[in-house]
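Example record for the data management plan.
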Amino acid sequence: MKISIVIPAYNEEKLLPATLRAVQAARTAFTERGWDSEVIVCDNNSTDRTAGIARAGGAAVVFEPINQIGRARNTGAAAATGDWILFVDGDSEPSAGLFGEMADAVSSGKVLAGGSTLRTDARSWWYDLFAWMWCQWSRIATHMAGSFIFVETAAFRELGGFSDKLFAAEELDLSVRLKKLAGQRGKRVVILHRHPLMTSARKAELYSLRETVVFIVKTVLRPKKMLSDRSACAIWYDGRR
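Corresponding structural encoding:
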């Protein structure tokens, strides 16, 4: 068994080192099972030291010139040689416990893909609330957070990966398609919860509650227009770090 860990990264020089350290430590959960693994960072047209930091951290680096999270993940996945692909965002810190929980799901033979609940380093009550609400919805609807997705490589490629028409919520679109495929194959998509993924709450510091709520409301009212427009998804693409 081989796991390909794909990390999309756009101007992540501040947080990527901690992510790589966490990923390297968590990989022990795979090596203890005799599994092989690789780490691939997709430099999504960064203007900082992201690529150099990734190489120094022991990762293979590929480049995606179009600044779009779905494309970055797809480009990283195209270089993957593993039986399963694990997507981890460049501002998140997975634990060995989480990787072990994922390995148990993979080993069961009953799972086609999965995600994880989250915890954040937020110092903001509203961001904590949003994170809690997302985790509840994620488990109820089996929607995977983009910051941690594992999927059988063959299934991911069969579905064509992440949509290149979406600049946000591409993980929800993939979740729906994977659940349909899993049902056809008598398997499941799962949301792991015993070891939540630690992910950055920097958006709570970079964007106000008002900016966040306005984006959410506009997206709910006009999802197709908002999610297919890069400029409308500024929270992900305006370069604030």
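Summary line stored alongside the record: The chain has one domain: 2-202.
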